[in-house]
Design goal:
two-stranded antiparallel ribbon; five-stranded mixed β-barrel; globular; 303 residues; alpha+beta; 3 domains; 8 helices
Length: 303
């Protein structure tokens, strides 16, 4: 191998299933199904049949407790981290891992390795910021509003603020839940040489992670991204950054409703209004990325 990579993020299932194929063994799901059959008491044994010559099984004897399970998970994560390097070596030896510098070098099959700068998409960042600031801002209005302008912050207005104080956090939580329903966190990939050049979108499986923690760790840094290309768009084509949300279908629904209204030219007027508003919206929240660009499912993000 050319360099030692320290994984900051690992898609455990992807690593294990890749290792299962490379080392002629069973997939991760087989091991998980065997583990689920264990009772609440007894011996907890986690071994990797297809890696018996590389990894030593570890076990927790006696009654299974929360602490022993947490220790087992930690040991498993460190073990998979070490296995990850072995997988990369095997992929390189078999010419299944290609280092690329731009979207012109994307192979038709196999894994890619890119050195990129990562940043979260604006939509999720704005939701995260509003979730933190909204309760604080509403409380400030309730506490300080009447002190500065009593006629504006009268009893009726204060009741409305109280109502918004309950509705807004619930709305933000629903939007975040809608975005994360696929358990995928999206981040924009930029070239390490020119951070202004957006080369694609990285999909991170956050089933076993806290999305906010992953976002904080991977924001504004240079990383080796290893994964598989799931989409490749050419120049003059765009890729949506809201594909994981129900909002992506909203504009299509509005267009269909306007079409059913029967008004001549209504759809074209609607599209023209959207095109006029898009530059202002993009100035606040980027909604799409221009081609040429790729979408990558991450197996790992390393430093």
């Amino acid at each position: 191998m050319t360099a030692f990579l320290e994984p900051v993020y690992l898609n455990e299932k992807m690593v294990m299933n890749c290792a299962a194929y490379l080392f002629k063994g069973v997939a991760l799901e087989t091991e998980e199904n065997q583990k689920k059959e264990l009772a609440g008491k007894g011996n907890l044994k986690l071994g990797f049949k297809f890696l018996s010559d590389i990894l030593s099984p570890f076990s927790a004897g006696g009654e299974i407790s929360k602490s022993s399970v947490n220790e087992t998970k930690a040991a498993r994560r460190y073990t998979v981290g070490g296995l990850h390097m072995t997988v990369l070596d095997a992929l390189r030896d078999n010419n299944h891992l290609t280092f690329i510098e731009n979207t012109d070098d994307v192979p038709e099959d196999g894994y890619i390795d890119m050195h990129v700068v990562l940043k979260p998409i604006d939509f999720y960042s704005i939701l995260d910021m509003l979730k933190s600031l909204a309760p604080f801002a509403i409380q400030l209005l309730k506490d300080l509003g009447p002190m500065f302008k009593k006629d504006l912050f009268n009893k009726q207005r204060m009741k409305e603020i109280e109502k918004y104080g309950q509705v807004i956090p619930e709305l933000l939580q629903k939007l975040e839940k809608d975005y994360l329903k696929s358990k995928q966190l999206e981040m924009i990939m930029l070239t390490s040489i020119n951070p202004e050049n957006q080369v694609g979108i990285l999909d991170l499986d956050v089933t076993d992670y806290d999305p906010a923690e992953i976002k904080a760790k991977l924001t504004d840094g240079k990383f080796h991204v290893i994964g598989k290309v799931t989409k490749h768009i050419p120049e003059n084509v765009t890729m949506s950054l809201l594909q994981r949300t129900s909002l992506s279908k909203l504009f299509d629904l509005l267009s269909k409703l306007i079409t059913f209204s029967g008004e001549i030219g209504a759809v074209q007027k609607f599209q023209n209004q959207l095109n006029m508003a898009r530059p202002y919206v993009d100035g606040i929240c980027q909604l799409q990325i221009a081609g040429p660009a790729i979408r990558v499912m991450a197996m790992s993000v390393c430093v």
